[in-house]
Design a protein that fits this description.
Length: 331
Amino acid sequence: MARRRSAARPGVTGLGLREELAPGVFINSFYRGCTPGFVYTEEGIILIDAPLIPEQALDWRAQIEDEYPGELFLYLINTDHHRGHALGNQYYMPVTVIAQERAHKEMSGYTENFKERVRNSFKREPEIQVQLNNIEIIPPHITFTNRATMLYGGRKIELIYVGGHTPATSLVWLPEESICFVGDILWVDQHPYMAQGNTIEWLNALEMIRQLDAEYLVPGHGPVCDAEATYRIEEYIRFMRGRVRDYYLAGKNKNETKSGLVSEMVEWFPIPPERKAKIESQIKSGLNRVFREIQREEELRTDRTGANGRLASGNGDLSFADQSDQDDDDD
């Protein structure tokens, strides 16, 4: 399958050029916050995620219109509700936004305080901050629960809810092209943002992705890859779960666990010096989240264990509704 490539270096913040993964299926891996894509159909364009930074969102729209001038924007699919994937929705209107139903709940709750936090997060980059003075939240117009199939202009696009990274995280699967947009389930050579995660769901999602046997995976962060890239992030999550469990069973509290383990987790992926403090804070948020998961699993295990010390029933796979760690800072 031929790929029409940009000459620029991928993975940097900038504008860059679109890359064609299959006929009529394009991505741009140069934007900040996500790797957006679009699919051309004979009935119009279907977009996948929207860049966070207005200059980049507008550039992406211009690139799409340059490739297919005059084509209607049919739908914009958000793989989750975080700002890096959905805050740029406003720059593609008129278009119908689609996401998992939890994304609508989360985005409908974005207040003026949320917008101000987004702007303040770029206080060291005033050239970006000034672009964010007119944020308009566009929640999904259409939602789905577990799966949905779109059939347009000879294309088949499947939406698959997986959770894991957020309560709304979903895959966009193009079975005939063997391309899967996996969103923030997959981070390539980067520390994942886990503050709103459910690691059991996340591990299950990675296994599901491998079963698709896609030729190309488009991660939320990092270059296009194949299923082999899923193993490293799985190892990271399993290592974190195991070490947090060690600390918990040793009687350490949440703060002691975070303080003790952040240095171990930092070593997993390279970190640019200017992002070290932010990534360490991100790792601590993930450790905080996993600590609560392990605490609940162990409490359930204790409840189910009889006097003989054996687990009476259940496998400890839990779903957690508490989202208090979310800070919407996953770009």
